[in-house]
Amino acid sequence: MRNLARKTLLLTAALSVTFASAVRADETAPPPAAAPPMETAPAPAPAPAPTASVSRALITAPPLSGPTIWGLVDWFGVGVGARYMFPVGIPSLLTHTSLKDSWAIEAGLDFLHRSDDFAAYSYSYNEFIPTVGMMWIVWLRDDFAVYPKVGAGWAFGFDNSNDNCTGCTLGGIWVEGAAGLLYKVGGGVTLRAEVGNYGAKGGVAWLF
After folding, report:
1. More confident residue, 85 or 5
2. Between β-strands 77-88 and 100-118, what pairing exists: parallel, antiparallel or unpaired?
3. Which end of the chain, C or N, has fewer beta carbons within 10 A?
């Protein structure tokens, strides 16, 4: 009995020492290493915003050339005339619109018959007028255009009155400002009308 008590006492002391040693080892052990932070993928760079190109191709109308034949109604007479159009390589002015424009020179000859009989102002005479002019053609549609025009020339007058040409001036410098329109029918055929400080003209052109 005494031996059993002694063994029990020794076993209890051994367990106490073992438990105390384990506690001290746990207290002195370094703390566990912290888990490394999770790496996050860098945010993608924003795509550059699209930018509109500041340069635009010049919008120019096709250069046209060809003849025109028309009739004339002058303030004091009637006549006929002819022109030939030549394209001019001047840069387009309408580069930032949907309109197209071009430049042209026209040269030709008009024939006018003027007459009037009013008291002392009685006359009847003819004029041949070679002329040349510059046009700025603005196409509002593919088949329709308008234009301003400035022309100049020299008139050669011939008196055919029964008496003296009273109240008239034969010949001289011819300067004209006008505005007109072009309407393309097809196959190069183009209808024309024009009005200026000397009257109105209307006819047909073949422009290519």
Report:
1. 85
2. antiparallel
3. N
In this structure, the number of other CB atoms found within 10 A of the CB of residue 17 comes to 10
**Predicted TM-score (pTM) of this structure:** 0.67
Task: Name residue 143's amino acid.
Answer: D
Q: What is the C-alpha to C-alpha distance for residues 7 and 13, in angstroms, rounded to an integer?
A: 10
Residue 3 has what pLDDT? 55
Report the 10 Å Cβ neighbour count for 178.
Answer: 19
**Rounded Cα gap, residues 82 and 80, in angstroms:** 7
CB-side neighbour CA atoms (13 Å) of 38: 2
Strand-pairing partners, residue 49, are none
In the block, tokens 């001290």 appear at 24
- Residue-wise pLDDT for 87-146, tens only, equals 999 998 998 888 999 999 999 999 999 887 766 667 788 999 999 999 999 999 999 999
- What is the spatial distance between Cα 122 and Cα 141, in angstroms, rounded to a whole number? 47
